[in-house]
C-alpha cells in the first residue's frame, strides 16, 4: 500500500449545471477490494463510470498508476486495463462463448489463445456446459456469471462492479459472491465495488467509502466505519451495530470462542478454529449493570460479560445510546429510566453483557 | 376470364423460355434499385447512428426532416432530381438526365431517409448501457458502433428491406428521370405500366411475376441474415 493505483483529486461532476459529484480525494490501492456504499442516487455509479474512463468529469483529475489523465491521453489504451460489470448482465446477441470472447476479439488476440482463455474462464465460473447456448436465453444467475467471465477473460488490472448481485435471489447471489471472491483474491485484482447492501460490503471489502448526495462522507476499514461513524448521516446508513473482526480459537458443538482485539467473545457459529470472522452486535442486545453489583450472584444466561468504561452517554428521546470501552468498542441502548437508575456518566465503570446467540457472525 | 387466362399462359411461356428483353429489364431493375439501396445504407446507417447517439443543437429538426423524408412521395423526388438535372438546371452540365445514374439518384432520395429513420429507431431501442459495456470491455469507438449495429441488426435489416421494397416497386420517379427508354432506362415497373397501357397483359403479368419474385428473393436473403443467431421465441402463450 504505497502509491495509490487509482486516484481522483478535486473531482466535480455536473449534469446541466446540477452538481452530482464532489469528491476532494479518493485513493484506491493495488490489490484491494474497495466498496462504495450509499443510498440510491448518491452518485456511486457515476463515480464508477468516471473511474473507468467512460465518462469525462466536469472538473478534476484522474490519476491511473501515477499518470494524470489529460485530454490527449490515449484513453483506449488505459481503458483496456480496466473493466466494469453492471447490475444487468448486458449480454450481446450470440452464444455464451462469443460473449466471453468479446474483450479478446476487440483486442485482436489470436484465435487459439481466445479459445484457450475463454474455456479457462468458463471453467472458473462453472458455466462451461453453457458455452454453445444462446446468451439471451440464460437464467439471471447464469447470465451474470457469463458477464463476469467476459469481464475477467482479458485479465484486467482493475475491476469495477456496479451492484452486480442486486437483481439476483439470495441463494444465487451467495454462490456467485463466493466464486467471484475466490477469483478476485486469486488474481489479486484491484476491485472497486458499488453496493447499497451493508452486509455485502462487510463481507467483501478491505476498505470502504460511504457516499451520499455526491460526496464521500467517510473512508476507512469496515470496522472503523461501522464502529466509529463520523456523523449521523453515516451512522444512519451503516446502522449502529458494533462490528468486531476476530479469529476463532476454539470450537465445541457450535459454541465458538473468538479472539478480537482487546477481548474474547463467545458466539454461536459453525466456523472452525483459525477462521476469520466478523461479529455484529446490535446495541439493543447489550445490557448494562452497575459494577458494584458484579460478583453478587445474579445468575445470567449471558455468556459474554465485560467490565467496561462508559465513554459517552448520548440521550436520544426515550432511549440513551451508551458508547463503552471494554477493551474493544461496544454500543448499548438503554432506557432513560435505566440510565438514571444506573447513574450513567462518562468514565464510570459498568458491566456490559450480551448472549452468545445475540452475535451475528459473518465468515470472512 | 379468357383474357386473364391467356395472359397467364403466355407469361409462363415467356418466363420459361427466358425472353431476352424481359431478362434485361429485370436485371436493370435489380442493378438500379440494388445500387440505390447500397448507397442509401452507406449514407443512412451512419447518419442514423450519429443522430441516435449524439445530441447537438438542431438534432431534433434533422430527425423531423428524416421522418418527413420517409414518407416522401416518389413523384416529388422525381421532380427534384428532374429539375436539378434538367439541361438548364443547376447540375444540367452533367448530362445524366434519362440515364440509369439519374434513376439511382432519385431512388437514393427515396430510400436513404427510410434507412436513416429506421436506423435511429433501431439504435434507440437498445439499452443505453450496452454502449458503456462495449467500451468498458475494451472496444474502440468504431468497434463499439459495429457492436451496436450488430445488436440492432434485426430492425436495421428491416430498414434495408423497407428501403429496397420502397424503390424497386416505385414507378413515378424512375419514369420521370429515366424516361422508360427501351434498352436503356426501362425497368420492371415502367415496362409494366407501358405494356398494360398497350393491352399486352401477357407481358405485363410476366413482368409483375418477376418483380414479385425478385422482391421475395431479396427479402428471403436478408431475412436469412437477420434471423441467423436470433433467439427464437420459445414461450407458448395461451390463445
Structure description:
The complex is a heterodimer of chains A (364) and B (239). By secondary structure, chain A is of the alpha+beta class. Chain A has 2 domains: 6-241, 3-Layer(aba) Sandwich (Rossmann fold), CATH 3.40.50; 243-363, RNA polymerase II/Efflux pump adaptor protein, barrel-sandwich hybrid domain (OB fold (Dihydrolipoamide Acetyltransferase, E2P), Beta Barrel). Chain A is built from 10 helices and 20 strands. A 6-stranded mixed β-sheet of chain A has the order 6-7-8-3-9-10, sandwiched between helices. Chain A has a 5-stranded antiparallel β-sheet with strand order 13-12-11-14-20. A 5-stranded antiparallel β-sheet of chain A has the order 15-19-16-17-18. The longest helix of chain A is centred in the middle third of the chain and has 18 residues, at 170-187. Chain A starts with 5 loop residues before the first strand and ends with a strand. In chain B, helix 1 (2-17) packs across helix 11, helix 2 runs parallel beside helix 5 (100-124) and helix 10 (188-197) runs antiparallel to helix 11. The radius of gyration of chain B is 21 Å and the shape is globular. Chain B has one domain (2-227): MetI-like fold (Orthogonal Bundle), CATH 1.10.3720. Chain B has helices spanning 2-17, 20-53, 59-70, 74-85, 100-124, 128-136, 141-151, 153-168, 172-178, 188-197, 201-227. The model of chain B has no long low-confidence stretch (mean pLDDT 90). Chain B starts with a helix and ends in a 12-residue tail after the last helix. Helix content of chain B is 75%, strand content 0%. Chain B contains 11 helices and no strands. By secondary structure, chain B is mostly helical. Chain A binds chain B through residues 49, 52, 54, 76, 79-80, 82-84, 86, 88, 90, 92-95, 102-103, 106-107, 134, 136-137, 150-151, 154, 160, and chain B through 127, 129-130, 132-140, 143, 147, 150-151, 153, 229-231, 234.
Amino acid at each position: 500500500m504505497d502509491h495509490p493505483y487509482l486516484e481522483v483529486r478535486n473531482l466535480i461532476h455536473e449534469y446541466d449545471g446540477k452538481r452530482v459529484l464532489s469528491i476532494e480525494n479518493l485513493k484506491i490501492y493495488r490489490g484491494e477490494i474497495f466498496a462504495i456504499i450509499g443510498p440510491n442516487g448518491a452518485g456511486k455509479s457515476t463515480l464508477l463510470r468516471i473511474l473507468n474512463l467512460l465518462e469525462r468529469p466536469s472538473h478534476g483529475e484522474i490519476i491511473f498508476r501515477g499518470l494524470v489523465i489529460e485530454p490527449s491521453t490515449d484513453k483506449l489504451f488505459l481503458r483496456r486495463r480496466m473493466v466494469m460489470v453492471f447490475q444487468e448482465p448486458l449480454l450481446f446477441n450470440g452464444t455464451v462463448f462469443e460473449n466471453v470472447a468479446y474483450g479478446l476479439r476487440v483486442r485482436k488476440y489470436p484465435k487459439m489463445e481466445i479459445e484457450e482463455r475463454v474455456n479457462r474462464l468458463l471453467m472458473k465460473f462453472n458455466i462451461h456446459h453453457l458455452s454453445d447456448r444462446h446468451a439471451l436465453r440464460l437464467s439471471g444467475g447464469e447470465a451474470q456469471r457469463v458477464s463476469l467471465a467476459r469481464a475477467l477473460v482479458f485479465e484486467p488490472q482493475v475491476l469495477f462492479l456496479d451492484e452486480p448481485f442486486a437483481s439476483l435471489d439470495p441463494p444465487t447471489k451467495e454462490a456467485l459472491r463466493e466464486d467471484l471472491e475466490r477469483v478476485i483474491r486469486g488474481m489479486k485484482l484491484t476491485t472497486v465495488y458499488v453496493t447499497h447492501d451493508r452486509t455485502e460490503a462487510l463481507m467483501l471489502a478491505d476498505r470502504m467509502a460511504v457516499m451520499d448526495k455526491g460526496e464521500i462522507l467517510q473512508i476507512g476499514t469496515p470496522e472503523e466505519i461501522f464502529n466509529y461513524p463520523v456523523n449521523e448521516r453515516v451512522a444512519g446508513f451503516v446502522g449502529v451495530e458494533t462490528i468486531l473482526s476476530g479469529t476463532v480459537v476454539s470450537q465445541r458443538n457450535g459454541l465458538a470462542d473468538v479472539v478480537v482485539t482487546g477481548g474474547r467473545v463467545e458466539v454461536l457459529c459453525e466456523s472452525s478454529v483459525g477462521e476469520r470472522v466478523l461479529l455484529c452486535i446490535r446495541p439493543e442486545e447489550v445490557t448494562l449493570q452497575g459494577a458494584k453489583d458484579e460478583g453478587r450472584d445474579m445468575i445470567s444466561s449471558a455468556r459474554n460479560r465485560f467490565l467496561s468504561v462508559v465513554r459517552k452517554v448520548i440521550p436520544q428521546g426515550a432511549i440513551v445510546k451508551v458508547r463503552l470501552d471494554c477493551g474493544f468498542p461496544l454500543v448499548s441502548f438503554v432506557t432513560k429510566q435505566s440510565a438514571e437508575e444506573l447513574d450513567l456518566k462518562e468514565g464510570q465503570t459498568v458491566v456490559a453483557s450480551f448472549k452468545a446467540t445475540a452475535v451475528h457472525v459473518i465468515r470472512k | 376470364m379468357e383474357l386473364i387466362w391467356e395472359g397467364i399462359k403466355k407469361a409462363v411461356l415467356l418466363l420459361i423460355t427466358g425472353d431476352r428483353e424481359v431478362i434485361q429489364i429485370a436485371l436493370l431493375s435489380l442493378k438500379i434499385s440494388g445500387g440505390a439501396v447500397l448507397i442509401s445504407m452507406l449514407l443512412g446507417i451512419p447518419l442514423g447512428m450519429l443522430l441516435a447517439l449524439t445530441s447537438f443543437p438542431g438534432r431534433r429538426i434533422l430527425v423531423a426532416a428524416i421522418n418527413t423524408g420517409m414518407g416522401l412521395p416518389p413523384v416529388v423526388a422525381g421532380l427534384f432530381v428532374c429539375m436539378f438535372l434538367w439541361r438548364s438546371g443547376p447540375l444540367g452540365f452533367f448530362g445524366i438526365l434519362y440515364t440509369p445514374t439519374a434513376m439511382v439518384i432519385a431512388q437514393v432520395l427515396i430510400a436513404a431517409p427510410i434507412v436513416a429513420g429506421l436506423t435511429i429507431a433501431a439504435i434507440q431501442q437498445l439499452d443505453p448501457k450496452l454502449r458503456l459495456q462495449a467500451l468498458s470491455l475494451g472496444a474502440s469507438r468504431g468497434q463499439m458502433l459495429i457492436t451496436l449495429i450488430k445488436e440492432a441488426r434485426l430492425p436495421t435489416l428491416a430498414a434495408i428491406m423497407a428501403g429496397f421494397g420502397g424503390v424497386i416497386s416505385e414507378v413515378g420517379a424512375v419514369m420521370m428521370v429515366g424516361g422508360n427508354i427501351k434498352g436503356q432506362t426501362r425497368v420492371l415497373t415502367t415496362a409494366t405500366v407501358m405494356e398494360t397501357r398497350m393491352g399486352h397483359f401477357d407481358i405485363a403479368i410476366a413482368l409483375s411475376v418477376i418483380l414479385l419474385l425478385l422482391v421475395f428473393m431479396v427479402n428471403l436473403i436478408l431475412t436469412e441474415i437477420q434471423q441467423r443467431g436470433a433467439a427464437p421465441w420459445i414461450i407458448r402463450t395461451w390463445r
